[in-house]
Amino acid sequence: MKSFGLILVLCASLASAHYTFPSLVVGGKTSAAWQYVRETNNYNSQAPVTDVTSADFRCYDSATNPTTSTVTIAAGSQLGIECDNTIYHPGVVNVYMAKAPSSVTGWAGDGAVWFKVYQISAVTNGGTSISWPAQNLPGVTFTIPKNLPTGQYLVRIEAIALHTASTYGGAQFYISCGQLNVTGGGSGKPGPLVSIPGVYTGYEPGILININYPIPKNYTQPGPAVWSG
Ligand SMILES: *[C@@H]1O[C@H](CO)[C@@H](O)[C@H](O)[C@H]1NC(C)=O
Ligand SMILES: *[C@@H]1O[C@H](CO)[C@@H](O)[C@H](O)[C@H]1NC(C)=O
Ligand SMILES: [Cu+2]
């Protein structure tokens, strides 16, 4: 319980403890901040979203009305999504994508169009320990599925911080949406498809959870299974 109190104090006192995901890494090159990522409302405050039902749970950009460029990337190659800090808090990561009907510029991402392409979960050990492989990473890197159809996509990262998640609405979501032009794709059928918001109620065992005591025996990653193509 001692370390739980310490984390709360650190969280409240250090704005630098919070983070955004403003850059993409394509072909080993890191983009400028907000070049290919829609500028989020928290670009300055870095504060999280906590209401999983709000419209801002999707891309967190209602206040910025961002115009963003689109980066071209080949299916089967690596995409990085970089943090402006590190993923400071204990928690997990999900990355979703959604295919735009035509140009992704200005496309909102409405409807059941989102599928998961990557996740970093927790490591449990029958109740003796729990660890968070995403914690302190400078960002995430994953492969755009080789069979993903060619076209334009939104790519949405959510880093879920769980240090204050033991009451409803306590989990903190750090969110960004980037714009991708995927080339050389295949004929895969991505799924399961979900709506965002809508994918979570906030009562999931991996979202409403006390990670400190008792130490969770198991951890259930929020959201659908990863589509790997
Ligand atoms: C997407 O990539 C194709 C193939 O390289 C290119 O012709 C097209 O202009 C690109 N579109 C955007 C929006 O970057
Ligand atoms: C652990 O597994 C049990 C049994 O399936 C489930 O009820 C519980 O919600 C899980 N706990 C977490 C934190 O995912
Ligand atoms: Cu915090």
Automatic annotation (TrEMBL):
Name of one Pfam family that matches: AA9
Gene Ontology cellular component annotations, sorted alphabetically: extracellular region
Cofactor(s) the protein needs: Cu(2+)
Coiled coil segments of this chain: none
Cellular compartments annotated: Secreted
One GO term of the biological process aspect: cellulose catabolic process
Alphabetized UniProt keyword annotations: Carbohydrate metabolism, Cellulose degradation, Copper, Disulfide bond, Hydrolase, Metal-binding, Monooxygenase, Oxidoreductase, Polysaccharide degradation, Secreted, Signal
Any one GO molecular-function label of the UniProt entry: metal ion binding
Primary residence: secreted
Signal peptide: 1-17
EC number: 1.14.99.56
Domain Auxiliary Activity family 9 catalytic, first and last residues per copy: 18-219
Domain of life: Eukaryota
Catalytic activity as recorded in UniProt: [(1->4)-beta-D-glucosyl]n+m + reduced acceptor + O2 = 4-dehydro-beta-D-glucosyl-[(1->4)-beta-D-glucosyl]n-1 + [(1->4)-beta-D-glucosyl]m + acceptor + H2O
PANTHER family the UniProt entry points to: ENDO-BETA-1,4-GLUCANASE D (PTHR33353:SF10), PUTATIVE (AFU_ORTHOLOGUE AFUA_1G12560)-RELATED (PTHR33353)
Family, per entry: Belongs to the polysaccharide monooxygenase AA9 family.
Protein name listed in UniProt: lytic cellulose monooxygenase (C4-dehydrogenating)
